[in-house]
Every structure is written in structure tokens, then in C-alpha cells.
Write a structure and sequence with these properties.
Elements lengths: L1 H11 L4 H17 L3 H22 L7 H10 L2 H18 L1 H12 L3 H25 L30 H20 L2
Length: about 190
């Protein structure tokens, strides 16, 4: 180790300034041929943060106009309409079987690609709403120290007879133990 250090001091002079300057010059020459990946990531992150903060500032204060209330109401309609519409189809099938059969035969004539398109539209609509709600509500993060959090007190074992922490299992064991005591008392 001392031999290497002595060789470096002999080549580059005393102290680390010469070695540091050499390293900087080598990295400067290398960046001519290949860009610094770390710096590119830093600049990309800075650009993303600037765009994100601009977008956040734009939508920080929601407009509470009549149009927004109308659109929010429209966004809440499809799920109840689908559920109530399905129930209405059952009622219609019982009330007017001939008309219901005629309309179902009409639905049977719809080509498969059109059904696929309808399924994709409905899936994307509900998927986008679910993704929005997942982004808006923040998940509960685990403990910062990396250790799993302890289970709630309701499922922790309360005594040595219940090592599993399952209250139903503890009740079953207590009941079976009581039944065994009663049976042993009754046998002569």
C-alpha cells in the first residue's frame, strides 16, 4: 500500500490535489464521448418536478361552478344506471316476455367486435375511475424501520392457551375442554 502511495506522490506531486485534478480532467474528457448519466438523471428529475409543480398549481383550486357540478353528477351516473338497468331488465322480462324476447334476439344479432368495443369502453371507464381513486387516496405505509407492525390487540394472543391469536379457535378449544371435563365426570 505504501509503495502505491509513494508512486502516486512521485508522479503527481505531494497531496491529493494533483490526483483530484487528474481525475476531473479524465472525467471531463470522458463526458465528451459519453454524457454523464447521473447528471442526465438529475436534470430529468428537475424537469419532471417543475412540470409536476406547474400542473399541481394549475389544479390546486377546483372551480365549483355549475358546469363542474353537472359533470360530476354525470360521472356518478353510470354505475347506478347499470345496476338499476339490470334489475329493470328482469322486471321487463316478467312483465312483457314477448317484447323482451324480441329485444334479446336483436342483441343476439350484434356482431362480436362491437361487444368487444363496448367491453373495452366500460372497462376503461371503470378502470380509470378506480385508478383515479387509488391515486387520490394514499395507502398506509409500513413502519419506517422495516419491521412489520404488530397486529391489532383484538387478534393478539391474550394468554398461553391461545397461542395462535384466533379468538374462534380459542373459544372452540375452551368448549371442547369443558365438554371433556363433563364427559370424564360422567364416566364411572
Amino acid at each position: 500500500m505504501g509503495l502505491i502511495r509513494a508512486g502516486m506522490v512521485a508522479l503527481f506531486g505531494r497531496g491529493g490535489a494533483g490526483v483530484s485534478a487528474l481525475g476531473q480532467s479524465v472525467s471531463g474528457v470522458a463526458e465528451v464521448f459519453r454524457p454523464n448519466a447521473t447528471r442526465a438523471l438529475e436534470l430529468g428529475h428537475d424537469a419532471w418536478m417543475a412540470a409536476h409543480s406547474s400542473h399541481t398549481a394549475e389544479f390546486a383550486h377546483a372551480r365549483a361552478g355549475r358546469f363542474d357540478a353537472f359533470v360530476n353528477g354525470l360521472n356518478r351516473l353510470p354505475r347506478p344506471l347499470l345496476a338499476l338497468g339490470t334489475l329493470a331488465l328482469f322486471i321487463y322480462a316478467m312483465a312483457e316476455p314477448e317484447g323482451f324476447g324480441l329485444r334479446m334476439r336483436g342483441l343476439a344479432e350484434v356482431p362480436d367486435p362491437l361487444w368487444w368495443l363496448l367491453g373495452a369502453v366500460v372497462a376503461f371507464y371503470f378502470g380509470a375511475r378506480e385508478a383515479h381513486h387509488l391515486r387520490v387516496t394514499r395507502p398506509v405505509l409500513p413502519a419506517a424501520n422495516g419491521q412489520p407492525s404488530s397486529p391489532p390487540a383484538s387478534i393478539q394472543p391474550s394468554d398461553d392457551t391461545n397461542p395462535s391469536g384466533n379468538p374462534a379457535l380459542a373459544a372452540w378449544r375452551a368448549e371442547s375442554a369443558q365438554t371433556e371435563r363433563v364427559e370424564t365426570r360422567q364416566t364411572p
